[in-house]
Design brief:
The complex is a heterodimer. Chain A contains 12 helices and no strands. By secondary structure, chain A is an all-alpha fold. Chain B is α/β, with parallel strands linked by helices. Chain B is built from 10 helices and 10 strands. The termini of chain B are far apart. Classes of the chains: A mainly alpha, B alpha/beta. Chains A and B meet through helix 1, helix 2, helix 6 and helix 12 of A and helix 1, helix 3, helix 4, helix 6 and helix 10 of B.
Amino acid sequence: MTAPHGTARDTAAPVNLAAASQTFALRRVWAMVLRYIYLLRSSWPRMLELAYWPLVQMILWGFISQFFMTNSTWVMQASGVLLGAMLLWDVLFRAQLGVSLSFMEEMWSRQLGYLFATPLRPIEHIAALLVLSLLRTLVGVVPAALLAIVFYHYSVFTLGLPLIVFFANLMVMGWGIGLFVSAIVLRFGLGAESMAWFLIFAIAPFSGIYYPVSALPVWLHPLAWALPSTYVFEGMRAVMFQHVFRADLLAAAAALNIVYIGLGIGAFLFAFRLARQRGLLLQIAE
Amino acid sequence: MQEAVIEVRGLTKRYGEVLAVDSIDFSVRRGTTTALLGGNGAGKTTTLAMLLGLLLPTSGSIAIFGVDMLRHRQKVLPRMNFSSPYVDLPGRLTVREILVVYGHLYGLEDTAARIASVAEDLSIVEFLDRQSRTLSAGQKTRIALAKALLNQPELLLLDEPTASLDPDTGDWVRSYLLDYQRRTGATLLLASHNMTEVERMCDHVMILRAGSIVEKGTPAGLIERFGRDTLEEVFLDVSRNRAGVEVSPIRAAQ
């Protein structure tokens, strides 16, 4: 290796920085989105994983739906109620996973120390995680939804415009939980990473995904109605069974989601500050 | 006299009962190279992390370029950069992709041109399209250095810049850093165990022990004051005169 010989490049051409100290820079959000896109592009197992589970779930619930179509009067009234529920549940799951897994990529690659030595602000990192979550969810769920049309002649898109509202509410709830999980992983290290997989399933039984809330014991109803997802799944069944759009349910889901996303962002920012107090940004490990 | 780029007053970091950095005061003048010397757990990395805002001090103040780092770090961070063997860059990304991401984070207006320039300077053009995980330790050090120089920092903080490098690569890195400083007038602050490196590169030395600055001066001045032949002998004199057992502050915090 030869010793470097200086050129006048740095002296002659100072680097121009584009308002790097501004409060919220879309450019830094884009940088982080780009970082995850590069990562996904470089790793086919990661790309495969995005679509694999939604497809497996769709195939499984497609067969279950076909079976119940001839054995359950409830399912017979609205064919596709189980498949629709499964696809919407996967939106929530993927949205949560999209945030927490994208965040954990930084911990696995041990570069938080470099990232936050740049002008990147935690709120910009959060914005990037949300964008990534949306992209990951679309990549995972849309192919499954399209193949459900091919395989089972069921289109979740027949829900019409309410589908957009259901999707948006489940995304926001997933973001809130994903940020909360990321906060826990930031605070307690990668030993807590499995929370990204199991925490969301703790709320599944109470969300009324495949059955109405009335099927739950009465003492569990308050817990169920504290979850935005419950309102979405009840709203979905109202569209499918009664052919009505329950704006009241969706308004309640949206109001709860403001709380959920607020708590998620708050937890992440709190954990970030704690990490700065305890030196965790440079010491990420199990 | 040159202006102070870094002004630290009463900087303290405590993790519970463990005092990692004990009310240190120092300043670093523009265009100089200063070393933080000390054994393991002396407080070097903790000090660098506080200067970067990665770690919040328990008390004290840090002003960089005259700006209060504890309140307005985002105003200062675009003008500085950092490299450490203990922080990684994403292994699955190519070197070019890594530099593009950091170029955007630092707000470079012409990221592609700057990457080309830095890559040529650091002789990493041939690695640009390789995933960083496939590179050797020496090559990775140069990539980290490329990341650290992307924004042409006026202040460069280096944590053990030549740790785990073979002598040839270590010498190359030192030569490059000196050359960069000569060309740009940048200020360098490095934490190191390597006394030869410090003697060769640094105008000023601060020796840390158990979180306190116990000696300060020029390398030649310290050697003369201690009546020794090398800085390593001075360092051994200072560190063997320790009062108590040193505890890694980071480990103590976990």
